[in-house]
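PROTEIN ENTRY
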Amino acid sequence: MTTDGEHYEARQLIVTVPPSVLRTGAIAFSPGIDRWQDAISQIETGGVIKFLLEFRRPLWENTFRDAGFIFSDAQVPTWWTQLPLNHSVLSGWLSGPATLTAPRGDRLTMMAIESLVYLFNCSHETIDRELRAVEIADWSRDPFSLGGYGYKTPLTPAALKVLTEPVYDTIYFAGEAFNDGEEMGTVEAALQSAGRVASEVMDTRK
């Protein structure tokens, strides 16, 4: 049952909610699934803030010609272009503990601009003149994800052994953080997990 009173019934359920959200208790299971909840508490999720800036022209070519990735000591340290495509979009990446103290709203935009002023050795006016659009995805504060990507700790392998088992052949967990293969925290991991769980569910219906 949802918070607004809607009710749905099914023989089986695939849960793709991130472990960071499941850990908050936002979704209640009745009867309880303590073994699986304990395992979920062992899956960690890293904070991520992603910046997308569109310019009138590839402004970075003045400083970083044919640049793919740019790694630096700027406030937003990691950037990448769209090479080999010739699009004037620059992506920025801030992750880890730094997301916990990062500003919000317009101040995030300013932090990105100040980082590029530093990296390109240009003025704020130059950035403002060439900048066409800004989009920021603050996954660390998104209520539906509470983070960016799952990452492994020494406790993760044991937790994944539990989470890749269905709950009484009824509840299945799928998603990048629940993948027990080599990949984790990636689109590939999400696809691998989804394929495995879908196959398991279909096998129960043969």
In short: Residues 48-141 form a domain with the Polyamine Oxidase; Chain A, domain 2 fold (CATH 3.90.660.10). Residues 187-203 form the longest helix (17 residues). The chain has a mean pLDDT of 92.
